[in-house]
Amino acid sequence: MKTTPLLTIALVTFSFSGIHADNSVIYLKATDTEELKAKDGQKVTVHGETAGTGKSSSGTNFVNFKGGEFYLITFKSDLNLFPEGEPADLFGGKRLAVTGVMSIYQGKPQFKLTSPDQVRILEAGEEFPPKQQKTKVEPKPKASPQKAPAPEPKPEEESKPRPPVDSSEYFK
């Protein structure tokens, strides 16, 4: 299938937006471990405060969240995609909203970070998740029963005289 660059950009933008086909966003707290595990393989937005960060000897970055088992992982091969610095250095001690596909590793929920666009640093006092705007649904007025329109009278057809019926054919 051949795709145009514009279509590719649109698909990538949509995939990181946290919005699903039905325009709903799934927001979960980083402390809701069981709910996070239940979303394995699904795209969600997780929010919470980070606790500790770390780097492995191989260069993999980890960002852990307070009060739960959820964490972010960024492999060394993806670090070049973070021009402002490594996630372990940037996101420690911050309130974050992170969008990604949930995966479970050794029984713990995680996101693989592959782009800084997945992460939003929340401002102090910022309410998150945003309140869903409820669309006010106006009740439809009840339709009053309407009578079917009376059929229009047919134009009088010219009546042709019918031949007389011989009743002897029917009564023998």
Secondary-structure map:
Layout lengths: L4 H11 L11 E3 L3 H6 L4 E13 L5 E5 L5 E4 L12 H4 L4 E7 L1 E3 L2 E5 L6 E3 L51
Parallel strand pairs: 1-2, 4-7
Antiparallel strand pairs: 2-3, 2-5, 3-4, 5-8, 6-7
Average pLDDT metric? 80
Overall number of strands: 8
**Number of alpha- plus pi-helical segments:** 3
**Amino- and carboxy-terminal Cα gap:** 82 Å
| CATH homologous superfamily descriptor of the domain at 21-121 | Nucleic acid-binding proteins
Which residue ranges are poorly predicted, with pLDDT under 50 across at least 5 consecutive positions? 6-22
How much helix, percentage-wise, in residues? 10-25%
Large-scale geometry: rod-shaped
Rg from alpha-carbon coordinates: 33 Å
Along the chain, the helix and strand elements come as HEHEEEHEEEE
Main structural class: alpha+beta
Give a written overview of the molecule:
The chain is an alpha+beta fold. It has helices at residues 5-15, 33-38, 87-90, and strands at 27-29, 43-55, 61-65, 71-74, 95-101, 103-105, 108-112, 119-121. Strands 1, 2, 3, 4, 5, 6, 7 and 8 form an eight-stranded mixed sheet that branches. The longest helix is centred in the first third of the chain and has 11 residues, at 5-15. The protein is rod-shaped.
Features:
about 170 residues; alpha+beta; OB fold (Dihydrolipoamide Acetyltransferase, E2P); 3 helices
Structure summary:
This protein has 172 residues and is an alpha+beta fold. Helix content is 12%, strand content 25%.
